[in-house]
Each structure stands twice: as structure tokens, then as C-alpha cells.
Amino acid sequence: MLTLDITPFRSGVHEATLAPDPDAVDLEPDAFRDIQVHMHLQCQRDRILATMTMTAQAHLTCDRTLRTFWGDVEGTYVVLFGPEHLVGADDDAYDEVRPMHPTDTEVEITDIVHDTLKLSIPQRVVAPGAEDEDIPMQFGEFDDDEVEAEVEDDIDPRWEKLKKLKNGDT
Which superkingdom does the taxonomy of this entry point to (predicted)? Predict the structure, then answer.
């Protein structure tokens, strides 16, 4: 579980950085490493607006070459910790607003860091240098003349007149 101690923050703008272990944010250690959470906090007496930027290295599989590699991922999330009346009736409806009581000494950010890092993995993963590699498009033995002959034989006889027009034969 990852929490932020809010006792040292008075009204104003503050910066904070955390470096949690993957286990602390419910991530697999063999899938994520070097997690950094940088927070820009705008504090008032009863609320904190936190802009969090999470960076990490993720163990990714290249979609082009199927090689695994460690790649950088980054995500940002903004959340308001404030009084109950700001949260709304349905707690799940407003994830960007979290309850904070006047007696709270810390806020829990485990799910924010976990979800932001998981969602920061790109949909298309390409390893460095993979764009420059040739990808085999043909497998097995291949003869161009043989394929062209097969294509010529498969032509519908109704297209013969159009083929003659195309080739300039009348």
C-alpha cells in the first residue's frame, strides 16, 4: 500500500517525489521497475489538488519482432482530495475526487499509481531498432514465375476482352 503523508504540507504549492517498490502498488516486480511518482500539490486548508506524474520501466514484448525489452512508460493523473460534499453521491462516479477528512494524516494513492502505470503501456509496442529490421513476408520456397503463371490461368474468360483493351490489342 502506498500512502502520502500530508502532515508537513501547509497551504501553498509543494512538490513531492516517491520511489515505491512494485509490490507497494500491486504491480509485478518482473513487469515493472524503477517506479517514480512526482507530485505537484496545491494545498488549501481542507483540500489538496495533486497532479501526479508516474514513470517506470516496463517489461514489454515487441509486436513486430516478439522480442522482450525494458521500455519507459509515463502517465499523468490529477486528483482532488477534499471534503465529503465534493465527492458526490456515488463514490465510483467521481474517481478524480477522493474524500479527505480534517483529521487525516495521509492519503492513499496505491490504486492511482497502479492504474496509471498499467494504462500507460502503449497499445502498439515496438522495440528500439525494430522499425529498421526487415520482416519476412514469404515463407518456404517461392518462385515468382510460377505464381504469375497461376494467376494468368485463373483469369475469368469474360475478362479477356478487357485484357485485350488494356494491352492495346484490338
Answer: Bacteria
